[in-house]
Structure formats: structure tokens, C-alpha cells
């Protein structure tokens, strides 16, 4: 055999071994209970033994987690591991998906999120959401922000609405860029501006919690940096849960990080600990890039 062939077959074997190694970590390591620090003293959101099924398929397996006031919790993990599904449980967005069933105890300030008397409209005002793709309404910048306060009866007089719109755009870091064109369509803004408009729309109804599902994945690095700064500022007034496919982003914006794997919550801990000294072998395999 020539040296070249040897090298090539050695490389293939190494690649296969690596693959097998990854496979065996992914499937052999058991997730019996979440390691780290999933619970905190005073929880804003409290989730216990949450299971979610799409028809016959279980997407979330017995997940328990607390999220506190003024904290950003990042949810990371490979694609398809249930991050979005879990996030959507927190303001009952899964209700809109046919065949999706949520079980378990979920509460906001101690009140059940899935209680029989819960009206999802005010719940979603308390627990707002920002999606992956900026989705402004086909209305003016002003109307995008004023819409929520109007339908929730938070403000009706023009002067009150003007104040809420200005204040929300300020807090979303967009006011200076749009103050002279409030009557122009929201869809005419750049991607990063549209996402800040969606954040302004979410905060206009004075939510307590903001859920963000990969809010920067459609944005360029500058717009991403702006949103990350904003998340840090918003933390002073809100509870934030953010799904991100970027470990760097999780490290930059969050105080605790939750690692999901195949529908299980493997590990939750202070963000720095998760990235520098993970406890579970699956977390370590993921953060060192062995799969994902
Ligand atoms: N609307 C849906 N109907 C059926 N299955 C779904 C639906 N949304 C997600 N799933 C399944 O649930 C699992 C978790 O998906 P998802 O929560 O989107 O993961 P992630 O956000 O981590 O990528 C996947 O197996 C996915 O195929
Ligand atoms: Mg997702």
C-alpha cells in the first residue's frame, strides 16, 4: 500500500471513530435529572415536570426549571432538541399548534399558566414574545407599537398612546432612527430595525416576561450587537428567556444557561460555569463542538 492510501484510510478510520464517539455520547449518556442549578429562590416563572407531545411524539421530557426576575436565561442545544417548543409553553403559544399537548405545572408569579380560568390574551400581554424572523404588522411604525396598548385597553387617548409609543421606541433603542417617520410602514425598516420595532411592540403592553426565539438569527453582526445590548438593558425591568443557536451569544447576554438535548433539560447553571466547567458530559460534548 502506498503512503497516500494509508493516510487516507487512517483518516477515514479516525473520522469514523469520531463519529462513533459522538454517537455513543449522544445516545448512551442518560439524562435522569437536570444537573446544576435549575431552581432559584424566588421564581417569576416556575415549571415542573413539563411534558410536551406533538401527536404521538414526545418533544419535551419532564423538564423542570425556574426563571427569576431581572434575569436572562439562555436556552441552547442542537437543532430539534425542543428549545422553541419549551419556550412556547411559557405563554401558551403551543395552544395554536394542532395536536400539541402540554402537561405539567407551569406558573407565573405562582398563578397557573394553564389554569381553566386563564385568558390567553392578557397572559400573552404579560409574557410577550419576539420571533426569529422580524414580523412587523403591515402598518405604520407608530401603529405597530400602538396596536397592543389599544387592544388591551391600556391607552385610548392619543396623547397617552403617543407617550407609550415614544417611550417603547426609546427603550427598544429605535426612537432616534424613526422619530421623523413614524407614519411610514414598519416593513420599510432594515432587518435589525424591524426586530427592534418588534421588541418595542412587545414592551408597549408592559409585559413582565419577554420570550425571544433566536431573535438575531436573521440579523447582521452590527444589528445583533445592538439587540444584545438591548437585552442587557431590558433585564433591569423584565424577565427574559432567550433561545439562541449561538453559544457566544448565550455567554454574552445571559446569567444562566440551560442546555437541552433530545427534549431533555440536561444542565442549567450560571452561564460562566456552563461554558467553562460543565458538569454533564453531554453539555461538555456540545460546547466543545462535538455535535450540534
Ligand atoms: N408544529 C410541530 N408539529 C410536530 N412536531 C413538531 C412541531 N414543532 C416542532 N416539532 C418537533 O418537536 C421537536 C422539537 O422541535 P423544536 O422545539 O422546534 O426544537 P428546537 O427549537 O430546539 O430546534 C422536533 O423533533 C420537531 O420536529
Ligand atoms: Mg427552534
Layout of helices and strands, plus pairs?
Layout: H1 3-28, E1 35-36, E2 43-54, E3 57-68, E4 72-76, H2 83-89, E5 100-108, E6 111-112, H3 120-126, E7 127-130, H4 141-151, H5 158-171, H6 175-178, H7 191-203, E8 209-213, H8 221-234, E9 239-243, H9 247-253, E10 256-261, E11 264-270, H10 271-276, H11 281-287
Helix pairs in contact: 4-5, 4-7, 5-7, 7-8
The chain binds adenosine-5'-diphosphate and magnesium ion.
The site of magnesium ion has 3 residues, from helix 2.
Number of helices: 11
- The CATH superfamily of the domain at 31-135 and 207-287 is P-loop containing nucleotide triphosphate hydrolases
Structural class, from secondary structure content?
alpha/beta
Largest sheet, spatial ordering of strands: 1-11-10-4-9-8-7
Q: What is the fold named in CATH at topology level of the domain at 31-135 and 207-287?
A: Rossmann fold
Order of helices and strands: HEEEEHEEHEHHHHEHEHEEHH
- Global mean pLDDT: 91
Q: Which small molecules are bound?
A: adenosine-5'-diphosphate, magnesium ion
CATH architecture of the domain at 31-135 and 207-287: 3-Layer(aba) Sandwich
Poorly predicted runs: 1-17
CA(first)-CA(last) distance: 36 Å
CATH class (first level) name of the domain at 31-135 and 207-287 = Alpha Beta
Shape: globular
